[in-house]
Amino acid sequence: MARVAGNRTTIYDVAREAGVATSTVSRALANPGRVNAHTRQHIIEVAERLGYHTNPIARALPSGRTQTVALFVSDITNPHFFGIIRGAEQQTRAAGRTLILGDTEESPDLESGNIERLTGSVDGFVIAASRMSDEEIRELADRHRLTLISRQIDGVPSVIVDHEDGTRQIIEHLASLGHTSVAYLAGPRRSWIAAKRWQAIRATARQFGMRAARLGPFPPAVRGGAAAADAVFGHGATAAIAHNDLLAIGMLRRFADRGVRVPKDISVVGYDDIFGADFCSPPLTTLAGQFEEAGRLAVDLLLGARRSGSARATEIVLPSHLAIRQSTGPAQR
Amino acid sequence: MARVAGNRTTIYDVAREAGVATSTVSRALANPGRVNAHTRQHIIEVAERLGYHTNPIARALPSGRTQTVALFVSDITNPHFFGIIRGAEQQTRAAGRTLILGDTEESPDLESGNIERLTGSVDGFVIAASRMSDEEIRELADRHRLTLISRQIDGVPSVIVDHEDGTRQIIEHLASLGHTSVAYLAGPRRSWIAAKRWQAIRATARQFGMRAARLGPFPPAVRGGAAAADAVFGHGATAAIAHNDLLAIGMLRRFADRGVRVPKDISVVGYDDIFGADFCSPPLTTLAGQFEEAGRLAVDLLLGARRSGSARATEIVLPSHLAIRQSTGPAQR
DNA sequence: TTGAAAGCGCTAACAA
DNA sequence: TTGTTAGCGCTTTCAA
Question: How far apart are CA A311 and CA A322, in angstroms?
Answer without folding.
Answer: 34
